[in-house]
Amino acid sequence: MTATDPALTALAQGWCALSLLHGRIEAHIERALQAGHDLSAREYSLLDVLSRQHDGDGGHLQMKQVADAVVLSQSATTRLVTRLEDRGLLERYLCPTDRRGIYTNVTEAGLRLLEEARPTNDAALREALDEAAENPDLAPLVQVVETLKAPVPA
């Protein structure tokens, strides 16, 4: 295949469309969360992921799992956790069965903020998708997004 291969060009155009859709959605959610709750989209995502932990087997996530879930590097995730911890929204503690492990939990204040922000996030997502659906290049991607289900962890 060459750089001018039609298959590569179509693939690149598809990737650009997907990237554009993602960027528009993320920017729309970011503005809504910042304005209404002083939260970034990444902060909201981190609170949401950590709020779903539980005390059973595999219930607490290691930092690498958290980083993967919020699509950040481990170092960026650690900095994000520290910022939210400084705001009183998260707390860290040693794993009771493995003193080398550190867990992160959402505090009561973090859970309250998450619950207050959830409708804003959901409405902003819906608005961004509705806007994108009006663009003929993005409409097929919006339809796909609307039919996707979150993958079940293995």
Describe the structure in your own words.
By secondary structure, the protein is mostly helical. Helix content is 64%, strand content 6%. It contains 6 helices and 2 strands; from the N terminus they run ααααββαα. The protein has a two-stranded antiparallel sheet. It starts with 5 loop residues before the first helix and ends in a 7-residue tail after the last helix. The relative contact order is 0.14. The model has no long low-confidence stretch (mean pLDDT 89).
Short description:
This protein is mainly alpha-helical and 154 residues long. It is built from 6 helices and 2 strands, in the order H-H-H-H-E-E-H-H.
Mean pLDDT: 89
**What series of H and E elements makes up the topology?**
HHHHEEHH
Uncertain runs? none
As laid out across the biggest beta sheet, the strand order is 1-2
Quaternary structure of the protein: single chain
What gross morphology would you assign? globular
Strand content: 5-15%
Overall strand count: 2
Number of helices: 6
* Span between termini: 35 Å
Derived structural class = mainly alpha
Q: Main sheet, how many strands, which sense, barrel?
A: 2 strands, antiparallel
Work out the radius of gyration.
Answer: 18 Å
Helix content: 55-70%
Based on the model shown, name its key terms.
single chain, 154 residues, mainly alpha, two-stranded antiparallel sheet, 2 strands, 64% helix
Write the layout of secondary structure elements.
Elements: H1 6-37, H2 41-51, H3 63-70, H4 74-86, E1 90-94, E2 102-106, H5 108-133, H6 139-147
